[in-house]
Amino acid sequence: QLAGKWFLVGVASRCSYLAEHSHRLEATAVMVTVPDGQSLATSTFRKLDGMCWEIRQRYLPARARGRFLLEGRGYGSKVDMVVGETDHSSYAILYYQKGRSISIKLYGRTSQVGDAIVEKFEQHIRAVGLSEDTTYYFPTYGGWHSA
C-alpha cells in the first residue's frame, strides 16, 4: 500500500549535516515499489548542486508488520525503518533508526499536506524527544517533480 509516488514534506532529526545545510533543502520526490511483494524499493529524486540525483535503496521486511531494514555497507550502517502512521492515500510518518540516532520523516502523496497531518507529525516528533528546532520542512518548488 506504500507503493507509488511520495513527496518528502518534513523531517525531524538531530543530524548535524541537516542542521548546517537546512537552508539548501530542495523539493524531494520518492518512488516506492514492492518488487517481490515484501521488500520496499525506493528511488529518491533530489537536486544537489544544481544537478538531479537518484538514490536507490532497498528495505527488507523485518519480523514485524510495518518494519523494514536497510542494510548498508560496513559495521553500524544498518537502518531500521518503521511505519509509524499512514492512511496510504495522503500521508505516511516513518521512523528511521541507526544505532541510537532516530529521525522521523513525513511524506505526502502531494507536496503539501493539511494542518491536521502536520499536527500528527509534530506529536510523533515530541513523543521521541525531538523538537521544533530539529524539524525541517521541505520547499514545494525547485526540485525534481517529474519523477
Written overview of the protein:
This protein has one domain (4-137): Beta Barrel (Lipocalin). Helices cover 13% and strands 44% of the residues. It contains 2 helices and 9 strands; from the N terminus they run E-H-E-E-E-E-E-E-E-H-E. The chain has helices at 16-21, 115-127, and strands at residues 4-12, 29-33, 40-48, 51-61, 67-70, 79-86, 91-98, 101-108, 135-137. An 8-stranded antiparallel barrel has the order 1-2-3-4-5-6-7-8. The protein starts with a strand and ends in a 10-residue tail after the last strand.
- Domain count: the total is 1
Element-level helix/strand string = EHEEEEEEEHE
Give the averaged pLDDT, no decimals.
87
Q: Specify the CATH homologous superfamily.
A: Calycin beta-barrel core domain
How many β-strand stretches? 9
Biggest sheet, open or closed, and with what strands and sense? 8 strands, antiparallel, barrel
- Range of strand content: 35-45%
Shape call? globular
Say what the CATH topology is: Lipocalin
**How many DSSP helices?**
2
Strand order in the sheet with the most strands: 1-2-3-4-5-6-7-8
- The separation of the N and C termini measures 19 Å
Rg over CA atoms: 15 Å
Helix and strand topology:
Elements: E1 4-12, H1 16-21, E2 29-33, E3 40-48, E4 51-61, E5 67-70, E6 79-86, E7 91-98, E8 101-108, H2 115-127, E9 135-137
Antiparallel strand pairs: 1-2, 1-8, 1-9, 2-3, 3-4, 4-5, 5-6, 6-7, 7-8
